[in-house]
Amino acid sequence: MKHVIVSTPGKRYDIIVEKKSFAQFPLILQSLTAGPVVLITDANVHAIYGRQLAARLQSTGRQILVQIIPPGESSKTLQQCEQLYSALIENHVSRDAVIVALGGGVVGDLAGFIAATYMRGIRLIQIPTTLLAQVDSSVGGKVGVNHTLGKNLIGAFYHPDKVLIDPEVLQTLDEREWRAGLAEVVKYAFIQDTELLRLLENEMTTILQQRDADALEEIIARCCEIKADIVQQDEREEGVRAWLNFGHTIGHALEAATGFNYYCHGEAVGRGMMGALHLSTALTGLQADELQRALALIRMLNPPPVPKNISLEEIMARLLQDKKRRSSGQTWVLLNHLGAVLLQDNISDALTRMAVEQACQDLY
Ligand code: ADP
Ligand code: ZN
What we know:
Blueprint (H helix, E strand, L loop, with lengths): L1 E6 L4 E6 L7 H8 L4 E6 H17 L4 E6 L8 H13 L7 E6 L1 H13 L5 E6 L2 H7 L4 E6 L2 E8 L4 E4 L9 H18 L1 H17 L2 H21 L14 H10 L7 H19 L4 H14 L10 H14 L6 E6 L2 E5 L4 H12 L4
Parallel strand pairs: 2-9, 3-4, 3-5, 5-6, 6-9
Antiparallel strand pairs: 1-2, 7-8, 10-11
Helix pairs in contact: 3-4, 5-6, 5-8, 6-7, 6-8, 6-10, 6-11, 9-10, 9-12, 10-11, 10-13
Bound molecules: adenosine-5'-diphosphate and zinc ion (ZN).
């Protein structure tokens, strides 16, 4: 069992990472609160895990309301929130209730936003079930929904009271989702942790195939620790929190250029990191052998190729759009060395183009 404490100015809470802990979650919830539970999950996760969790909670005599949303990013909307608010109000859910978010990033962001806003905020427990949610979105307090004009534009900073992680639930995750989540794990190693990097280099084949819960307990906890440490220094993303965006500048442009329905987020980040790594070698101290080591690891995750009908110009246009949207221009996250990160502004269009070309390269 691993314990990670997140300590922000407003709230201190812990993340428990423990294999086979899913069965213990009702007991842990019991010790946290006797109040009513609102379990929010999606239809897929409900079928595999939600139903049994709800049944166990019910058997302890607890009042429980289950809300099941359709799976996928299209559920992260204000309309979906409206429906959930209505269900909560109709069922007389009071301020002493706790929202349990069981699912991937979509459920976590949406249910987190409901918890942040319903009656000006009620308690929240995150039970992330995708690797991406376990190492990234469930930690750090960013919750919210999409707007038709852009992703994650409506939201809040709202930390949970606890995060419960069982790596065992990743066994049922779809192969693409699984690999995409590993790209974010690799990101943590690149920006902060050469020890984790070595572990991934040695074990990636086994991890990919077996999803071994012992190894994952260690790896997930380490990623949460790194994220917690960064968030503690800079909750509102005014400085070091931007480090977490390594690979995301080009990654977001790739997601946007392909209509947000071609890449899983982590796949686009994998390709984005390829670009950012080449840019680092061109501009900072990242050595050629470090570059090759890093690229080899990303290659193992096999992010899908950029579709042939998407031109370089289109991706460049998305990057430019992103740059214009920010008053401070575009800050790139680069590496000095593996495990050592820096922020850099004012990258020329020519170098940006080179990085995009590298991100779009065929891998084999
Ligand atoms: P992300 O965490 O990548 O943002 P989503 O919340 O969109 O992802 O979840 C991705 C997909 O995986 C959804 O269809 C969801 O229902 C499904 N899913 C989530 N967790 C699991 C799991 N442990 N086993 C199987 N499928 C899962
Ligand atoms: Zn990401």
